[in-house]
Design goal:
single chain, about 500 residues, alpha/beta, FAD/NAD(P)-binding domain, Guanine Nucleotide Dissociation Inhibitor, domain 1, 19 strands, about 35% helix, globular
């Protein structure tokens, strides 16, 4: 029997997962990556003795990673070492007002009691319901290809769907348990950073709070890129081949199929294609108009998750006031969310996330130094220029100095910024988005862009603009979904 050729476009998490899954089933897999290394948004770079992860920095849902490696008879520990971060993170609300989230549940209950007397009972109930959402959501929902609503017409799923609070907003849901606005802000931050607001995101996503408080926040020694390196190594072990600096320029199609993927000076024949690059770019730039699933009007109507303005900063001093994860929520939280989703504009007083992995890992910065990634979620599609970036760097440093009560500017020995135009250039990201589609009810499951092209039978999509959605674990699952669709189509012999 002839070995089927599968081409995977993009070596981010979804592309790596698709490649390994297909290669494991005997497909001849070639991964095409436009950049010089794997990882997509999760690449890394080194400068002046500092190592910076360029994208994802939170390691949540550890069971998803374990489940992925188990598909190949492997364990996470075969490839990288995980450490649980303690405390999980710190949230600064203003002078003398900060919350440090401990790792032990009993201590978390005590923390909530100190903020809102009597709230520990509500937290126990909230976490029990969040665990149910996590178990059912991961077990029954997120791994479905979501071709149509009919996939969800099963009594078990229908019954579960009621308990999942799909029609209730996240903000309304948390306020059933807690009166304290501080507690609600603490629970809402993953929503803002992963693509939505508490008012528009379904309550289903409280499952993230279960992972946060019960499963914990983890860190791979060496940084998040260790996960990328592990997944690339695993894919190679399964037989996948990689081509870097290999930008796809188009497709050769005939009779409702992709016959070949085109590079600048190369033509690669394919029996199946997984497009894990930006969905919008693949459709609008690489496919002829009559082969597209969606037109530009459709994409304009989508609610995108935020882009990000990121500063990679190397300091030649230790900053003990920072934790591995520090969130500065001492300004207008609601106004910041409004500037992303309601009235897109550069925020006046943004919330700021600081990742300082050198607080947990001595290998990522020179001795006596710190590597800081400062991230501001911002609306996609905004004007991005050096003047704007300089303004916000000054703002970030002012906020850091206000928080630490010390001068930091003169200790900067390395500085690099990254925003919309970089996302567009490096990843062809639609409107410079960082995370994909926002997690709104009308962009959930079968309402997301389809995994399988209806016009080209052997073209499949993976990544953050299709199911299940934004985030590292969903991206891995997305790659598995696309690969399994190809495997099933191949077995039926009717791709």
């Amino acid at each position: 029997m002839k070995t089927k050729k599968a081409i995977v476009i993009g070596a981010g998490f979804s592309g790596l997962a698709a490649a390994a899954t297909l290669a494991n089933k005997g497909f001849k897999v070639t991964v095409l990556e436009k950049n010089s290394m794997a990882g997509g948004r999760a690449r890394k770079f080194e400068a002046n003795g500092f190592t910076f992860d360029m994208g994802p920095s939170w390691y949540w849902m550890p069971d998803i990673f374990e489940s992925y490696f188990a598909c190949f008879g492997k364990k996470v520990s075969d490839y990288y070492k995980l450490n649980r971060i303690s405390p999980s993170y710190k949230i600064y609300f203003g002078p003398g007002d900060e919350v440090i989230l401990p790792t032990k549940l009993d201590e978390i209950y005590e923390l909530y009691e100190s903020i809102e007397p009597g709230s520990s009972g509500g937290l126990k109930k909230f976490l029990a319901e969040s665990e149910y959402k996590y178990r059912v959501g991961i077990g029954e929902f997120v791994r479905k290809p979501s071709h149509s609503i009919m996939e969800y017409f099963h009594w078990k799923i229908a019954a579960a769907g009621i308990k999942l609070d799909m029609l209730s907003s996240f903000g309304k849901y948390t306020r059933k348990f807690f009166k304290s606005e501080k507690i609600n802000r603490m629970l809402e931050f993953p929503v803002l950073f992963l693509g939505g607001t508490a008012k528009t995101t379904p309550a289903l996503y409280s499952l993230m709070n279960y992972s946060d408080m019960v499963q914990g926040t983890w860190y791979p020694d060496g940084g998040m890129y260790e996960v990328v390196a592990a997944m690339e190594k695993l894919a190679r072990e399964q037989g996948a081949a990689f081509m870097f600096n290999a930008e796809v320029t188009g497709f050769e199609t005939e009779k409702g199929r992709v016959n070949a993927v085109l590079l600048e000076n190369k033509r690669l024949e394919a029996d199946f294609v997984v497009a894990s690059a930006d969905y919008h770019h693949v459709e609008q730039q690489l496919l002829r108009k009559d082969k597209r699933n969606y037109n530009e009007k459709y994409w304009e109507s989508r609610v995108l998750s935020p882009s990000s303005l990121i500063f990679f900063l190397g300091f030649n001093t230790r900053i003990p006031e920072l934790d591995h994860h520090t969130l500065l929520f001492d300004e207008d939280f609601e106004g910041h969310a409004d500037s992303i989703y309601k009235n897109p504009r550069w925020p006046e007083k943004p919330s700021v996330y600081l990742s300082c992995t050198s607080r947990s890992d001595n290998s990522v910065a020179p001795e006596g130094s710190e590597n800081v990634m400062a991230l501001i979620p911002v609306a996609p599609g905004l004007e991005d220029n050096e003047e704007i970036r300089k303004k916000y760097l000054d703002m970030v440093l002012m906020r850091m100095e206000r928080y630490t009560q010390r001068s930091l500017r003169e200790h900067i020995v390395f500085e690099r910024s990254y925003a919309h135009r970089d996302f567009e250039q490096d990843y062809h990201a639609y409107k410079g988005n960082a995370y994909g589609l926002a997690n709104t009810l009308m962009q959930t499951a079968f309402l997301k862009p389809k995994v399988r092209s209806p016009r080209l039978k052997n073209l499949f999509y993976a990544g953050q603009l299709t199911v299940p959605g934004p985030g590292v674990p969903p991206a891995i699952i997305s790659g598995q979904i696309a690969a399994n669709e190809i495997i099933n189509a191949s077995l039926k012999n009717k791709p």
